């Protein structure tokens, strides 16, 4: 079933290329990478992902045929950090990243997708007409604002819990002392109970 | 004694065309008739017959080719140019893809389709016989022949001809119908090939005979291991194959070192 296993990759590839085709600046960014092959060996995935960049699109596969211009071994969570040059040395030292070949290529590839700037309003206008497109865009913007505010207030609440509550927490030594006092108190109560029973 | 000799001569001079035995020199003409007849509907029929899976087989072939920018690729029996289009995008403007086919009608359909899709600049179209390729020795990094080898009259000669024009270090990929690896699949496949395909051909392309030939020619084509041996005998090294869709199709790969 080798041929069927290609389907998810072809779907993903089509999706990415569709997005790239909707950004007017994509061809310029693709041009910088055209002809390059990047291979990602992600710790969490059971296969290697090969990205081949063409003049106007990218191709995804799990094939390891042929040489790659850049071979990256890393973890899934580390991928977003690759956009910043300053992180590379730290990640390599921490053993979270291993690069063979040109590291700039990986950064350019991440930026290619991350830098997508699509005018969704125009896209919707072309498909649905001006009014529905504006209504949907406004809905999306207000939803986005709401989400941002909600996330800000959640972050504030989490910060409050983490910082303020942490300040009120007893230190380990205080807790140990409290535990000892509690044990002493329990022992005193048991002793008193025994005395009370004897006198009865 | 003379009768026996005559029969041996006849066997040597005849070759399969589907299940029929025909004179060796007639096969090219008969195959040409088949493809002249189906050229216009070739892509539609491919999608219908394989339920679109031929696209996955071809994509898998591309992924296994190790193609890089600047390479020179020969797509033999390239027909309507499915592989050529994908190779052309990958080799970029510095590379070149030669779409070769013995059949003029198929070549024209392929050329028109690729030009309509904007593939210009790095594709050359050559009408060529796979047995006698009109190219210099050691001139291609990759050679592919997809669903074409079974129509070739002298397969060992074609494999040798491809070997000659392949660069040292280059690879040949043969994508071809083969033998299903499970008896159950083989039964279903036989039923489909001999009962459904010709009817589909009649309905869509108004040509049942060509699709009957297709089913027969697949059965007459060497199985996976035989083709592997033939590639070894033609000079290829590290020959291996991978069964696709249960062996209905196999991708053979061999290198010239």
In brief:
Chain A has 200 residues and is an alpha+beta fold.
Number of domains of chain A: 3
Gap between N and C termini of chain B: 47 Å
The mean pLDDT of chain A is 86
- Helix segment count of chain B? 10
Strand content of chain A: 5-15%
Largest sheet of chain A: 5 strands, mixed
Show unreliable segments of chain A.
none
Greatest chain-chain interface?
A-B, 22 and 21 residues
Taken in chain order, the helices and strands of chain B follow as: HEEHHHEHEHEEHEHHHEE
Distance between the termini of chain A: 85 Å
> Structural class given helices, strands, pairing of chain A?
alpha+beta
The proportion of residues forming helix of chain A, as a percent range, comes to: 55-70%
List keywords for this structure.
heterodimer, A: 200 residues, alpha+beta, 3 domains, five-stranded mixed beta sheet, 7 helices, B: 257 residues, alpha/beta, Rossmann fold, seven-stranded mixed beta sheet, two-stranded antiparallel sheet, 10 helices, 9 strands
What would you note in describing this structure?
The complex is a heterodimer of chains A (200) and B (257). Chain A is an alpha+beta fold. Chain A has 3 domains: 4-118, 2-Layer Sandwich (Nonspecific Lipid-transfer Protein, Chain A); 119-169; 170-200. Chain A has helices at 7-21, 26-33, 85-93, 103-114, 120-128, 130-168, 172-199; strands spanning 37-42, 48-53, 58-61, 70-74, 97-101. In chain A, helix 2 runs antiparallel to helix 4 and helix 5 packs antiparallel against helix 6. With 257 residues, chain B is of the alpha/beta class. Chain B is built from 10 helices and 9 strands. Chain B has helices spanning 2-13, 24-38, 42-50, 53-65, 82-91, 104-116, 155-165, 183-205, 208-220, 224-233; strands at 14-17, 20-23, 72-76, 96-101, 123-127, 140-146, 166-177, 237-244, 249-255. In chain B, helix 4 runs parallel beside helix 5 and helix 8 (183-205) packs antiparallel against helix 9 (208-220). The longest helix of chain B is centred in the C-terminal third of the chain and has 23 residues, at 183-205. The interface between A and B is medium-sized, with 22 and 21 residues.
């Amino acid at each position: 079933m080798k041929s069927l296993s290609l389907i998810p990759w072809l779907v993903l590839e089509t999706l990415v290329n569709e997005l790239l085709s909707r950004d007017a600046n994509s061809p310029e960014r693709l041009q910088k990478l055209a002809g390059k092959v990047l291979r990602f060996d992600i710790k969490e995935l059971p296969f290697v992902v090969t990205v081949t960049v063409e003049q106007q699109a990218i191709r995804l596969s799990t094939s390891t045929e042929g040489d790659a211009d850049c071979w990256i071994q890393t973890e899934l969570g580390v991928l977003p950090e690759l956009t910043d040059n300053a992180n590379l040395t730290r990640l390599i030292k921490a053993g979270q990243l291993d690069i063979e070949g040109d590291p700039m290529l990986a950064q350019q590839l991440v930026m290619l997708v991350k830098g997508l700037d699509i005018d969704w309003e125009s896209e919707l206008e072309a498909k649905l007409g001006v009014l529905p497109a504006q209504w949907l865009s406004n809905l999306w913007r207000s939803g986005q604002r709401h989400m941002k505010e909600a996330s800000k207030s959640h972050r504030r609440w989490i910060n409050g819990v983490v910082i303020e509550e942490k300040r009120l927490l007893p230190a380990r030594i205080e807790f140990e002392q409290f535990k000892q006092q509690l044990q002493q108190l329990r022992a005193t109560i048991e002793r008193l109970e025994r005395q009370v029973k004897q006198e009865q | 004694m003379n009768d026996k000799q005559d029969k041996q001569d006849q066997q040597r001079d005849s070759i399969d065309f589907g299940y029929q035995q025909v004179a060796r020199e007639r096969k090219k003409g008969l195959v040409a008739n088949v493809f002249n007849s189906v050229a216009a509907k070739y892509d539609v029929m491919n999608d219908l017959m394989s339920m679109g899976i031929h696209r996955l087989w071809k994509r898998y072939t591309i992924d296994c080719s190790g193609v890089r920018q600047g390479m020179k690729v020969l797509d033999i029996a390239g027909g309507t140019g499915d592989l050529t289009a994908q190779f052309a995008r990958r080799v970029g403007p510095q590379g070149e893809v030669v779409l070769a086919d013995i059949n003029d009608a198929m070549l024209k359909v392929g050329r028109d389709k690729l030009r309509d899709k904007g593939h210009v600049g790095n594709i050359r179209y050559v009408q060529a016989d796979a047995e006698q390729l009109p190219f210099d020795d050691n001139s291609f990094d990759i050679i592919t022949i997809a669903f074409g080898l079974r129509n070739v009259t002298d397969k060992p000669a074609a494999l040798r001809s491809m070997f000659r024009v392949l660069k040292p270090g280059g690879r040949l990929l043969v994508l071809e119908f083969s033998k299903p690896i499970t008896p159950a699949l083989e039964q279903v496949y036989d039923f489909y090939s001999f009962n459904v395909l010709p009817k589909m051909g009649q309905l869509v392309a108004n040509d049942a005979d060509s699709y009957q030939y297709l089913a027969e020619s697949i059965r007459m084509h060497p199985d996976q291991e035989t083709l592997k041996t033939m590639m070894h005998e033609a000079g290829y090294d590290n020959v291996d194959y991978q069964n696709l869709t249960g062996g209905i199709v196999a991708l053979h790969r061999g290198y010239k070192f």
